[in-house]
Design brief:
The chain is α/β, with parallel strands linked by helices. The chain has two domains: 118 residues, 3-Layer(aba) Sandwich (Rossmann fold), CATH 3.40.50; 134 residues, Hypothetical Protein Tm841, Chain: A,domain 3. It is 42% helix and 21% strand. The protein contains twelve helices and 13 strands. The strands form four sheets. It has a four-stranded parallel β-sheet with strand order 2-1-6-7, with helices on both faces. It has a four-stranded mixed β-sheet with strand order 8-13-11-12, sandwiched between helices. Helix 3 crosses helix 4, helix 5 packs antiparallel against helix 6 and helix 9 crosses helix 10. The longest helix has 16 residues.
Length: 314
């Protein structure tokens, strides 16, 4: 049966190219390069580890490489959008969070120009899913399942705009200085955290930005906190009882986290991903994440955040 809608995402989702191909999902690539390096230093396209292995990439970062990332170009967006329009299948782009990237704004700019050229009713939609990385992989995997159950493009948009508030995330990084270098954490806090061996647990807030959710002294305790977070908050129905586990060249910790989760719920299924270059440039080697479906996160927001949300809705 022909799908009623086509899905585009970007390689920030950390899903393998094989998985994307098997499920007929298109993906846009970010790029990375070291500024000021005469030969480009560590550089390339985020193509789901087809051009470089994850170990090679993270070893280079460990040894001092400082690549920065660039979102898809306007030409990249236009070529992808026109390709999907040519298929005749209504298409939805489930886009990396606008909270930490200009990718959504870039996609919307191209969509606006295409609508001026082809008409406002072209069957092409862009949704800011307010997350990325391992959380995005979980989101895309479920979007595929819903597409295969028959959702139209319009229904996929409505589903995605609601579902993004039901994905939960906890992740740790091994060295806070990578986030500080990218402006996503104060440098002073990163320095103090490193000296005290404090591992912050981070998450996505309702606006798709990074937020603190707690700290643990040492990596082992942080991994246990992640397992406890899953056990306390996950949805356990047959299709939603999935934990997406991402790692940045620290596969040895994946088994530990999964073992802790299975002690509490041995029916849990796992979706394992390797953190791609786009995210890896900002978090460094040693990042680990646990993502899952849970209750509506908006209901746990502070009163102030709820008011702000209502204001943004007009």
């Amino acid at each position: 049966m022909t799908a009623k809608c086509k899905i585009i995402t970007d390689h920030c989702c950390d899903l393998s190219q094989e998985f994307l191909d098997e499920n007929d999902v298109e993906a846009l690539s970010f790029s990375y390069a070291e500024a000021g390096e005469p030969d480009g230093g560590l550089h390339g396209k985020d193509d789901a580890w087809q051009s470089i292995s994850s170990h090679e990439f993270y070893e280079a970062v460990k040894n001092g490489a400082h690549p920065m990332t660039s979102q898809p170009s306007q030409l990249d967006f236009e070529e992808m959008f026109r390709h999907c329009l040519d298929t005749g299948i209504p298409t939805v782009y489930l886009c990396f969070s606008s909270g930490i990237s200009g990718c959504y704004d870039g996609a919307m700019a191209v969509l606006g120009r295409l609508k001026e050229e082809l008409g406002d009713d072209i069957p092409l939609y862009v949704v800011d899913i307010l997350c990325g990385s391992t959380t995005q992989s979980l989101f895309i995997a479920e979007a595929i399942r819903q597409r295969d159950k028959g959702l139209t493009a319009e229904q996929m948009v409505a589903w995605a705009q609601e579902a993004r508030y039901y994905v939960w995330t906890a992740f740790i990084v091994d060295d806070l200085r990578y986030l500080a270098r990218g402006g996503r954490m104060p440098k002073g806090l990163a320095t103090v955290g490193a000296k005290l061996d404090v591992k912050p647990l981070l998450t996505w807030d309702l606006d798709g930005k990074l937020a603190f959710m707690g700290v643990a002294r040492g990596r082992k305790k942080a991994i246990r906190r992640m397992a406890d977070f899953f056990v306390k908050n996950h949805n356990s129905d047959i299709f939603s009882n999935v934990a997406a586990i991402g790692n940045a060249d620290c596969e040895h910790d994946v088994e530990r986290l999964e073992s802790l989760i299975l002690r509490s719920d041995d029916s849990t299924m796992f979706l394992e991903t390797t953190i791609g270059p786009t995210i890896g440039c900002h978090v460094g080697p040693g990042m680990m994440s646990c993502c899952f479906w849970g209750p509506d996160r908006r209901k746990g927001a502070s009163v102030s955040d709820q008011i702000a949300g209502d204001v943004r809705k007009g």
